Amino acid sequence: MAKTRHYKKVEKNVVASFLKALNRGLTCFINIFVKIFRVCDSKLTIMIVPHSQGKVINFRTNIFSLAFGIILIVGIVSSFVYFKKHDSTISEELSRSMKENRELLASFDELRDENNNVLQTAKRFKSSLSQTLSLLGIDQTKTVAKASTSDSDLNSLFDNQERAFGSTKEANDMHQLTSYLENAIQPIEQLGKMLESQETLFADTPNIWPVKGGIGHISQPFGQTTHPITGNWYIHKGLDISTWRTGDPILATANGQVVTVAYDSGFGNYVIIKHKHGMYTRYCHMNTVYVHKGDFVNQRKVIGTIGNTGISTGPHLHYEVHIGSDVVDPIKYVNVKITK
């Protein structure tokens, strides 16, 4: 019992000490707060004295109001500076956006011009393709019908141009142009297959200019004429092609086999090549010969050079085309295409 009473007494003393200290601390805090409030509530008189003899302006306030006013002014000034800076940034962004917008408009105008150019080119392409397919006998009915039903023919493209406006018009034009080009793929593929099938025929037929680079001119055509040396009338059985000099390369005008390499008092050095379909070509007055009898040559192979051998008034190539036993005018074949 004695110990219990002792513990209770100590406990009461501790609680009393704590409450006493708390009371003193709270009282001190209240006193400090009151002093601060009294200081802030101290009256101040602010006087504005003009340099002239005008009336002196004065007003009364306290420290609290003055501090609040200063804080308010600083806040307003800070806000003004912040928003001013932010406004400057917005102005710069707006200026940059306007510049980019002008550049985009310029690019759009350029794109629209290019679009018009593409449409005009496509129109010319359509006309040329139709003419080519007609000449080659390729049936365009199915292709045109398919294009018309899908509204992809260029006719509908150009008819509908005035019905669209702005960017929608350009997009519509390009869409229909794409559709037309897709439908043009099939006839172009047919054209390619036809040309591929004819490639061998062209290579086996004498159809190119016999002088490399397409140079030279016809100094004597095929047919009846006066012999430049004897002065007698005779049938000139080939073309005389002159470049005014010796040594220009002579080409084989078609695939074939060399059947003759010889010299003749009239033709000089000459070569005869046998081709398919009963055709032969002869090259005369050559300066040098690069092939031998029995050689197989491809079209455009250099077989020799222009010369002045045999009966000749100057360096030139006498070129003949034979079909079976008949001699034909080579001009009908050298005009097919010129090799460069």
Commentary on this structure:
The chain is an alpha+beta fold and 340 residues long. It has six helices and 14 strands. Strands 3, 6, 7, 8, 9, 10, 11, 12, 13 and 14 form a ten-stranded antiparallel β-sheet that branches. The chain has a two-stranded antiparallel ribbon with strand order 1-2. Strands 4-5 form a two-stranded antiparallel ribbon. Strand 8 and strand 9 (268-274) form a beta hairpin. The longest helix has 74 residues, at 63-136. It is rod-shaped, with a radius of gyration of 53 Å.
Radius of gyration from the alpha-carbon trace, in angstroms: 53 Å
- Sheet-strand content, in percent, reads 15-25%
- Inertia-based shape: rod-shaped
Largest sheet: 10 strands, antiparallel
- Amino-to-carboxy terminus distance: 134 Å
Query: What is the residue-averaged pLDDT?
Result: 80
According to DSSP, the number of beta strands is 14
Which ranges are low-confidence, i.e. pLDDT below 50, for 5 or more consecutive residues? 147-152, 161-165, 336-340
Helical run tally: 6
Helical proportion, percent range: 40-55%
> How would you classify the helix and strand content by structural class?
alpha+beta
Reading the helices and strands in chain order gives: HEEHHHHEEEEEEEEEEEEH
